[in-house]
Amino acid sequence: MTTAAVVPAAGRGERLGPGTPKALRDLGGHSILVHAIRALVSARSVDLVVVAAPPDGGVEEVRSLLADHVPLANVMIVAGGATRQQSVAQALAHLPDDVDVVLVHDAARPLVPAELVDAVTSAVRAGASAVIPVLGVSDTIKQIDEGGRVVRTLDRSELRAAQTPQGFDRHLLSRAHELAVEQGIDDVTDDAGLVERLGHTVVVIPGHEENFKVTRPFDLVVAEAVLARRRSSGVMV
Known about the structure:
There is one protein chain. The protein is 33% helix and 22% strand. It has helices spanning 32-42, 58-67, 84-93, 114-125, 170-182, 191-197, 217-232; strands at 2-8, 26-27, 30-31, 48-53, 75-79, 99-104, 130-136, 142-144, 150-153, 160-162, 166-169, 203-206. The strands form three sheets. Strands 1, 4, 5, 6, 7, 10, 11 and 12 form an eight-stranded mixed beta sheet that branches. It has a two-stranded antiparallel sheet with strand order 2-3. The protein has a two-stranded antiparallel sheet with strand order 8-9. The two termini are 29 Å apart.
């Protein structure tokens, strides 16, 4: 089987503050995107990485950014869309015919261990058509209504926080995106959610605590600390 990792990186990431798109923000001397792509390229199971770059000149900007830090022989850069869902669909449309397994990874998760990437791929190759890494929820979760009132307290033993990369059978994921377009859905931020709409089972495997999403300024501080710890341990970053 041939595995491609799709990285939607066209978003602005406004919760991280104004300015450069989130994926291009600096983290430890390199952009968040460079860290994410390096992790995917270093995974033994990944044959091709497809980056959906910001439209309007973003393809060349990302190509130039990656060229100095990542071997581009197995990296394809395409123009993304206005939403994450559209960016993933654009990347899927450019995949070579021999790709059987597709991983979708958030560019904003720069610290994903290569071992987790390989674990997701292995689970798909072992027969699961959709696989996501998850972590248990430590906080008490409240469901609230539109008025800000608590409706109920959810049982956190039944809750999990989903991470990426999410792994799929290539044809199943493509069909899920096609159905979303047919139904007028264009704002889904979780590809497993699209597969669930088709009635397919999504299998979970253990995620990793360092594979958090860089969304707010504080997340950058934590990510810098993780990088510093890795460097002090002799890990290449």
